[in-house]
Design a protein that fits this description.
The structure holds two protein chains of two kinds. Chain A is an all-alpha fold. Chain A is about 75% helix and about 0% strand. The model of chain A is unreliable at about 1-5 (pLDDT under 50). Chain B folds into two domains: about 1-190, 3-Layer(aba) Sandwich (Rossmann fold); about 205-320, OB fold (Dihydrolipoamide Acetyltransferase, E2P) (Beta Barrel), CATH 2.40.50.140. In chain B, strands 4-5-6-1-7-8 form a six-stranded mixed sheet, sandwiched between helices. In chain B, strand 7 (about 175) and strand 8 form a beta hairpin. The radius of gyration of chain B is 25 Å and the shape is elongated. The chains are: A mainly alpha, B alpha/beta. Chain B: Pfam families: ABC_tran, TOBE_2.
């Protein structure tokens, strides 16, 4: 579907300076990634680039360490639940936002994206107090709630954008043919916004996987997410195990982006 | 029947109230004597065809048409037969597996029509269904809609701002003005015997001459004085003698004539245009009025000529003076 638009895009002549700028930008963005991935395969004992020889020993070391693997598993679990719950709630919120009109819709939009606008630390402190008040302080459930809150806007924005592409006359046509609201949602709306929903879920997952500040404050007793475990690890040791862990995170993110590309097409995602 | 009116006069709003997408501020909507205001749109059983077709883009043509049947839990084979039947009715056979974006606008509108008709609705609501089609397709789909409506016997409620479309397609036309029905009658009556200037103006080319009504001369007839002549013409029934009135003369009820014969008006040609099949000219009358009329293409028409005009009195129509 997106092919139709690009087919008619004219190729504009691009100056040398502009090309150079783009190249530098990419270098700037990619150097840390390339460095860390490269360093993770080193045969030496320190994080260094270029790597000294090639070995998988630091991956072995990573999977041998309980604290890091537990962190990875907790991050995966929290991320997966975040993706699922966030997507469902964000879909409902987006439908609600669409039903509102004019000014109220603007305020609703603002409210739904508030976690993006308020500094993460503030949200985290607020949540910490709240969770202790309701007896969920320092529990996995509390951490989970924090992650859902922080990832919600990403899913919401993506699903709202998809919903805006669905003309309201389709709802009306469906109703006139005898469909209930639920049937219309299931057979017309949901299939049409599915790309946005999938994208929202993947972004929610990636975001949750990366959260640091809020995890630090809300983490359960004795439990660490991967970013926290990694930071703890780096405080005492400077071994390429950290690079291996980072590479694993990068791979997961890349898989996410590849899924978006595969299912939706990146042009439509942004 | 058709709701006819300029944009913003409330015809689409009326249709949306009927469909149940809008709740009227007041009043009542009844079907067979029963109020349907409390019935949600999905249980009204009306078929609706939208201006922008509103096909489901993720379903094939056949799936679009079968959508309503699937909701009604019809068996697969019954859906298959009914979809096939209605598709041959709207001449779409062979396009079952195409997606809506792969077919033309005219075909899309026929799919929309089929999707509504396959459910045998009590009432078919059409909201400017031809507005997005080009002129040639518009004619084709218009006749198709008319034929289907006649065959199926389903009452159709048609909204348009195009008067020729309205007249060609409907048994009854309601001309709307600012949210109210100005006149509800057959196309012939709307055109020939409009109740007010607004209706006459909206239904086609028209000349209006203000005149004085002198005396009634029989049921619905009035003697008037206009442009130096006295005529007996048909008039709106409620018109009283002595009231200020306007005489409606459609261009086709006027004929050019040489002076001296039994002419109704005298005037001077001020504008003319050759249109191929006919000529269009405007004639200024002695009292300042202007008449537009069409003449056969080979009539000698020169600007500045003094001419006479013969009025076909059976097609002249007297209305109360417009309030606009």
């Amino acid at each position: 579907m997106s092919g139709g638009a690009t087919m008619f895009t004219q190729q504009r002549p691009v100056g040398f300076g502009f090309t150079l700028l783009i190249v530098l930008l990419y270098v700037f963005l990619l150097v840390p990634l390339v460095t860390i991935v490269g360093a993770s395969f080193t045969a030496g004992l320190l994080i260094e680039f270029p790597p000294r020889g090639f070995s998988l020993q630091w991956y072995r070391e990573f999977f041998a360490r309980r604290d890091l693997v537990d962190g990875l598993l907790l991050s995966l679990r929290v991320g997966a639940i975040t993706a699922i719950v966030t997507t469902i709630v964000a879909t409902m919120a987006a439908l609600c936002g669409q039903a509102l009109s004019g000014k109220r819709s603007g305020w609703f939009q603002l409210g739904m994206t508030l976690p993006l606008l308020v500094p993460e630390l503030l949200t985290a402190v607020g949540l910490l107090f709240f969770l202790f008040k309701i007896g969920l302080g320092k529990t996995v459930l509390g951490l989970q709630m924090g992650h859902i809150l922080m990832s919600f806007p990403y899913a919401y924005v993506s699903i709202t954008a998809a919903l805006r592409q669905v003309p309201s006359s389709l709802d009306e046509a469906s109703a006139s043919l005898g469909a209930t609201h639920w049937q219309t949602f299931r057979m017309v709306t949901l299939p049409l916004i599915m790309p946005g929903v999938v994208m929202g879920a993947i972004f929610a997952f990636i975001n949750s996987f990366d959260l640091y500040t809020i995890s630090l404050l809300l983490k359960p007793l004795g439990g660490n997410t991967l970013p926290l475990a990694l930071f703890d690890f780096l405080t005492y040791e400077f071994k390429p195990t950290a690079a291996a862990a980072a590479t694993i995170s990068i791979v997961l993110s890349v898989i996410g982006v590849a899924l978006v590309q595969r299912l939706v097409g990146l042009q439509r995602a942004f | 029947m058709t709701l006819l009116g300029p944009s913003g006069c409330g015809k689409s709003t009326t249709l949306r109230c009927l469909a149940g997408f809008l709740e009227p501020d007041g009043g009542e909507i009844e079907v067979d004597g029963q109020s349907i205001l409390a019935t949600p749109s999905n249980r009204r059983g009306f078929g609706i065809v939208f201006q922008n077709y509103a096909l489901f883009p993720h379903m094939t043509v056949a799936e679009n048409i079968g959508y309503g049947l699937r909701l009604r839990k019809c068996s697969g084979s019954e859906i298959g037969t009914r979809v096939r039947d209605v598709m041959s009715l709207v001449k779409l056979t062979g396009l079952e597996h195409r997606m809506p974006r792969e077919i033309s606008g005219g075909q899309q509108q026929r799919v929309a029509l089929a999707r509504a008709l396959v459910l045998k609705p009590k009432l078919l609501l059409l909201d400017e269904p031809l507005a997005n089609l080009d002129a040639r397709l518009r004619d084709e789909v218009r006749w198709l809609i008319r034929d289907l409506q006649q065959q199926s016997g389903i009452t159709a409620f048609y909204v348009t701002h195009d008067q020729s479309e309205a007249m060609a397609i409907s048994d009854m036309v309601a001309v709307m003005k600012k949210g109210r029905v100005a006149q509800f009658a057959s196309p012939r009556e709307i055109y020939q015997k409009p109740v007010e200037r607004y209706v006459a103006d909206f239904t086609g080319e028209a000349n209006f001459l203000s005149c004085r009504s002198l005396e009634a001369c029989g049921e619905g007839r009035m003697r008037i004085s206009v442009g130096g002549a006295e005529l007996d013409v048909d008039c709106v029934a409620s018109l009283e003698p002595g009231e200020a009135a306007e005489l409606l003369l459609r261009p086709e009820s006027l004929q050019l004539a040489t002076l001296g014969e039994d002419v109704t008006f005298r005037g001077r040609i001020v504008k003319s245009a050759f249109l191929g099949a006919s000529q269009h000219c405007e004639i200024a009358l002695a009292d300042g009025g202007v008449l537009k009329l069409t003449t056969p293409p080979n009539d000698p028409v020169r600007i500045g000529d003094e001419v006479g005009i013969v009025v076909d009195r059976s097609h002249a129509w007297l209305m109360p003076e417009g309030t606009e």
